[in-house]
Task: structure prediction
Amino acid sequence: MSEASTNNEEGLKRVVGVTGLAMTVVNNTIGVGIYALPALIGIQLGAAGVIGFILCGLMFAAIILCYVEVGSRVKTSGGSYAYVESAFGPFAGFIVNWLFFFGWGSLSSAAVMNIVVDSLAVLFPVFANPAIRMLLLFVMISLMILVNVRDAKLSVRMVGIITILKLIPLLAIIIFGIAHIEVSHLKWEHLPSVNAFGETALILFFAFAGFETSLNVSGEIKNPKRTIPRGILLGGILVFLIYILIQTVTVGILGYQIGEFKDAPLAAVAERIVGVTGAGMLLFAAAFSGFGLVMGDVLASSRLLFAGAKDGLFPKFLGKIHPKYETPYWAVIIYALLIFIFSISGGFKQLAVLASGSLLLIYLAVILALLKFRMQKEKEAEKTFKIPGGIIIPCIAIAAIIYVLTNLTKPEAISICIFVAAVCLIYFVMKKLQVKNS
Result:
């Protein structure tokens, strides 16, 4: 019996290979933000925005390498949660799980779903109607549930197809846009100042965020020692190259006028390349890109609920496996419904600021988990991927995270602290209830 068809200790099929993992990384990282990002960076850094991408890419590479090593050590589902829980116990794992699935995952996906509908509403005004808008959201979320419950392998294939299709307009802009670049627009008047880079650091940093969600399906990855390093690094390189090329083409075409198109710079670029229809095509591409991003998130982040339920941190029914499809169907359904509720309520908007800080804290916890694993001399560790250079790269990653955290505003920092405190309170209340019921 092949590895893909056998069940692991969690009851899940290992069906995700190198290509599938790499495509999931690209899909989870390149979302609707790419359609506005070039203008935000171009306004702050001008033609030197490419330098910002390179610096941020190098910082993020350090974080990715840390994830690759710890991911090859911990092979159960849950991604960041599983890594931190294995290193520091259930309390730390509980905090990370909540930070990920609520503070980052569900709220971010809800925001993306709103952008998807907003983009479609420009093309089809009927979707601006509140009732029709809600119906559209329900249909899209229901489709995601259906696909993810029926077959994880089918979901991975769909994510791969969507990733390829959504990359087509971006690659078209790169290929056909190069001929429209004005070299004068790419000349640097001066290097960006430290303050200017700091102001865009948070935006740049999270342009690369999303790869970690792909590792939530650790329990369904074939041969983790081989697949995780190759899949994550391949996906990361593709993302980096696409960002650099898109930024160069956008600034090269729009130049100093880029500030006039801050909401949809790529649509403006497409219009200059192929005419008015180009803008419409890019709006549709933005909607399609967002849909694919959330589809991949439902696949990956639902495993956090599944892993948490298996460890007794969430209701037991979330840890159930579908008897026919062998997928964590209740975790998929509940996570997708959370996205739907936040999408139609609008209440998530005031909490959206938690997403960025939440992910930074998760990264920091995972890297600290790696350092703890390094101190544990286990025989199994000899068979895992290990970053060269000792603790140099983990220390660079920690320094990068602390640097970006310092760019959070005071209200943002306070909001994150309140959220973490609330999660801690929930944990201790749940523990007391478990003691009383035992």
In short: The chain has one domain: 3-437. The longest helix spans residues 276-310. The mean pLDDT is 79.
